[in-house]
Write a structure and sequence with these properties.
Blueprint lengths: L4 H14 L3 E3 L4 H6 L5 E6 L4 H16 L5 E6 L4 H6 L7 E5 L7 E2 L6 H9 L10 E3 L5 H6 L5 E5 L11 H8 L5 E5 L4 H7 L8 E6 L2 E6 L6 H14 L6 E2 L20 E3 L5 H6 L5 E6 L8 H6 L5 E5 L5 H11 L8 E7 L11 E4 L4 H15 L1
Parallel strand pairs: 1-3, 2-3, 6-8, 7-8, 12-14, 13-14
Antiparallel strand pairs: 2-4, 4-5, 7-9, 9-10, 10-11, 13-15, 15-16
Helix pairs in contact: 3-5
Family: Belongs to the protein disulfide isomerase family.
Protein name: Protein disulfide-isomerase domain, variant
Pfam families: Thioredoxin
Length: 381
């Protein structure tokens, strides 16, 4: 009986779709298993082994049922002896469990029937196909940027109602696995966009961060968004970043639990998220904000000087570029970053844009200048 080419191809595709067992070799084991975030069960076998032949249909059936929960693979130890030696394989079949810590795989102690394998995996809290795309928030952005040494790719969404990541981003993450860490910021996380100093109207965007710098581009076309993101990542990973900006610092969100108010005269770091609540609407009559070009000044002497006065002292970290940019734009400050500035606000009232004065402070007379600018502004308020 003769079969047409189409029938043969269809049969091959059907077999491939049913058999979810990954064939692992010395060449692909590291990339497929060790560099993956997924949970793996790997069978080390020999073709002549009778028990291995009995396990084969059970292994395939288990792989089929677990295709959304785990990955199952097999290694022919008669061909890839180095893998057998690496993992101390002494008998066949041996099944190893590669969970979150890929460097320390565990022996699989479950049954050998498909139902038993499936039950073992589904009851294992550590099993699962781990997310290749990190869903980021204001509080998780900094740990993400500091994790690993890979370049970081972040897509900032626009839809404030959608909290999940787009499906196409998983494909992008798969394409750049081992080359970059991929993250997604939902449209509802407005504070992240503000911290980067990117206009909200420019979203959605994609940014690529390497070291302490990043570049970004606006995504104009929804129809080609995936291809545009891939092209931008490839371009940004090739050579030096073109006209990069400094990465802002993402401080942790203020604890929601009740706290004692800091004593008047204490020095606090100010963030974009706390500017209005701590400074403009604070308990003291005046709010002094210091914008240093570097952290070379000690604010404690100034705080001590004003400890009995109804004012509060704050500083903005020089690496908090996003907040510096926002404040400079809001107050129409000169664009130079070399100067050390002090701003004084009257709290509890609406800030009048025409009444704001900024003071440039000399590093040689820092304390005196800060006192003078505070006293001066106290008279006009």
């Amino acid at each position: 009986m003769k079969f047409s080419g189409a029938v043969v191809v269809a049969a091959a595709l059907l077999q491939a779709s049913v058999a979810q067992v990954h064939v692992l070799t010395s060449k692909n084991f590291k990339q497929q298993v060790l560099d993956s975030s997924d949970y793996w069960l790997v069978e080390f076998y020999a073709p002549w082994c009778g028990h291995c032949k009995q396990l084969e249909p059970e292994w395939k059936e288990a792989a089929k049922q677990l295709k959304t929960k785990a990955k199952l693979g097999k290694v022919d130890c008669t061909v890839h002896q180095d893998l057998g030696q690496t993992y101390g394989i002494q008998g066949y079949p041996t099944i190893k469990e590669f969970g979150k810590n890929k460097k320390k795989p565990k022996d699989f102690n479950g049954g050998r029937r498909a139902s038993e394998i499936v039950q073992y995996v589904r009851s294992n809290p550590h099993a699962g196909l781990f997310e290749r795309v990190d869903l980021l928030t204001y509080t998780t952005m900094q740990p993400f940027l500091e994790s690993q040494k890979l370049p970081k790719v972040v897509v900032l969404g626009r839809n404030k109602q959608k909290k999940g990541k787009p499906r196409w981003l998983d494909d992008v993450a798969q394409q750049f696995r081992s080359k970059a860490s991929i993250g997604f910021v939902p449209g509802s996380e407005v504070k992240v966009v503000n911290q980067f100093g990117i206009p909200e109207s420019d979203r959605p965007i994609v940014l690529v961060a390497r070291g302490s710098e990043y570049v970004w581009v606006k995504l104009h076309q929804v129809e080609t968004i995936k291809d545009d993101v891939v092209a931008f990542i490839k371009q940004s990973l090739k050579g030096p970043l073109i006209e990069p900006q400094s990465l802002p610092v993402f401080p942790p969100r203020e604890d929601a639990s009740p706290k004692k108010k800091p004593p008047i005269g204490a020095v606090q770091q100010l963030h974009a998220s706390t500017f209005e609540s701590l400074c403009l609407a604070g308990g003291a009559k005046m709010c002094v904000v210091y914008l240093p070009s570097s952290m070379e000044f000690d604010l404690k002497p100034a705080a001590k000087q004003f400890r009995r006065d109804p004012l509060r002292l704050f500083y903005i970290h020089p690496e908090d570029v996003g907040f510096h940019s926002q404040l400079a734009q809001w107050l129409d400050l000169p664009k130079t970053t070399a100067a050390n500035r002090a701003l004084v606000f009257k709290t509890g009232t609406q800030v009048r844009m025409t009444g704001i004065v900024h003071f440039v402070i000399s590093p040689y007379s820092f304390r005196i200048d800060l006192i003078l600018c505070t006293l001066y502004y106290a008279t006009v308020l």
